[in-house]
Amino acid sequence: MYALLLAIIYIAFISLGLPDSLVGAGWPVMHQDLGVPIGFAGILTMIIASGTILSSLASERVTRRFGAGLVTAVSVGMTAAALVGFSFSDSFWMLCLWAIPYGLGAGAVDAALNNYVALHYAARHMNWLHACWGLGASISPFIMSSALATGSGWSSAYLIIGVIQVVLTFGLLVSVPLWTKVNPTVADARDASGGAEGSGATHVPLAVALRIRGVWLILTAFFAYCALESTTILWASTYLVTDRGVDAATAAAFASLFLLGITAGRFLAGFFADRIGDRWMIRGGFLTVGLGVVLLALPVQTNVLALAGLVIAGLGCAPVYPAIIHSTPVNFGRRNSQAIIGVQMAAAYTGSTLAPPLFGAISAWSGLWIFPLFLGALMLLGLIMAGRLHRLTRRGAQLSRTL
To answer: Does domain 2-181+201-402 have CATH number 1.20.1250.20?
Structure first.
């Protein structure tokens, strides 16, 4: 039963990633069909991410009342309905309307699944489950590319993904009874108090969590990382078309290389992350992203280096998100970790919300050539903030040992 539910959760994480890269992969054609400027992609993703923020903030109360299994199933169902609605939309305002349940469903399922896995499964599954998200996000650009290449249009790609989500919704509804029966002990329980995860935890108000030393550093690093990831997912295809002269169908397929890099990197990270440690996974990840951005920006005739840069940037992104979440109890104490992880998720979604439209506005004024520079600035911000947090926590640990 334990293995069966874990397999279902893995499938759910794949479904979580399926819709995330569709807008970016299809937007070079979608904006032309809908008769709106390129920069309107930022508006659409901002609506989606705003709903995601709201539902993630409410997820604790909703999940406590209805259970993680039912919340996951209903949330995937909302996303499925939104994707089918996207496929029948013939105007931008209809896309904006369907983006509301899209975002609300995505935020609820993300928070519910991450929390459930953190409570009931070993830490290695967090990396592999997020790799499954990358697998889902990598599949959908190929579906979009095939739809564009065959002439069936971007709407058929949304319909295909929507139907897949409908099937997954029914599977999750059938599995709901399993979620309350499986309750294994978390393997990675490094708690000085010896208590189990979440047992006897004292409520930490938001104002208190934000005043803990170093919290704003990690929030900024998380904001920068998610801003970098979401901007790349949304704008890489358009950058390749506009600045590199790649045709739309090919660019949609090439943009998936970034997500393939994330997916492969997270599968690998699950095997050796514990030996390397969270700090080096975060630092090495950001530095690898920097290398990929440099390759993406090189002014050469061939597109090979740019494509390699997308893969390398994806590999660099792979361990950052899971490592930041996993290091929270070590950096701030297990008593505070639940509250701080909630704030981190809000910072992550805020970065995903604000950065793509901000880049859209900047690129409308300066041109899409600035894309690699924008990513490089976010990479440096995340690297610097994570480094400052490490120095702060190291000094605190040294001080505690001398007392």
So the answer is: yes
Confidence of residue 338 (pLDDT cuts 50, 70, 90): low
Which has the closest alpha carbon to 126: 291, 281, 236, 310?
281
What is the rounded CA–CA span in Å between residue 248 and residue 253? 9
CB 7 within 8 A of CB 168: no
- For the ranges 277-281, 335-339, 396-400, the lowest mean pLDDT is seen at 396-400
* Confidence grade of residue 205 (pLDDT, cut at 50, 70, 90): low
- Whether the Cβ atoms of residue 94 and residue 40 lie closer than 8 Å to each other: no
DSSP state of 381: H
Res. 197: pLDDT tops 60: no
Helix, strand, coil tally for the chain in percent (to 5): 85, 0, 15
Pick the range with the lowest mean pLDDT from 29-33, 275-279, 292-296, 340-344: 340-344
Nearest to 229 by CA among 283, 294, 302, 285: 285
Backbone angles phi, psi at 90, to 5 degrees: -120, 15
Q: Model pTM?
A: 0.72
Is residue 327 predicted with pLDDT exceeding 50?
yes
Domain extent listing, the chain? 2-181+201-402
Alpha helices in 278-370 (DSSP H): 278-297, 304-317, 320-332, 334-366
pLDDT reported for residue 396 = 59
- What's the rounded Cα separation, in Å, for the pair 351 and 372? 17
Residue corresponding to tokens 């530095």: 287
| Residue-averaged pLDDT of the chain | 82
Query: Residue-wise over 292-331: b if at least 16 C-beta within 10 A, else e?
Result: bbebbbeeeeebeebbbbbbbbbbbbbbbbbbbbbbbbeb
| Other residues' Cβ atoms within 10 Å of the Cβ of residue 395 | 10
Query: What single-letter DSSP state applies at residue 395?
Result: H
Task: Please compute, for residue 252, the number of CA atoms within 13 A of its CA located in the half-sphere on the CB side.
Answer: 26
CB 79 within 8 A of CB 106: yes
Q: How far apart, in Å, do the first and last CA atoms of the chain sit? A: 48
Q: Which residues contact 260 (CB under 8 A, 6 or more apart)?
A: 134, 138, 311, 314
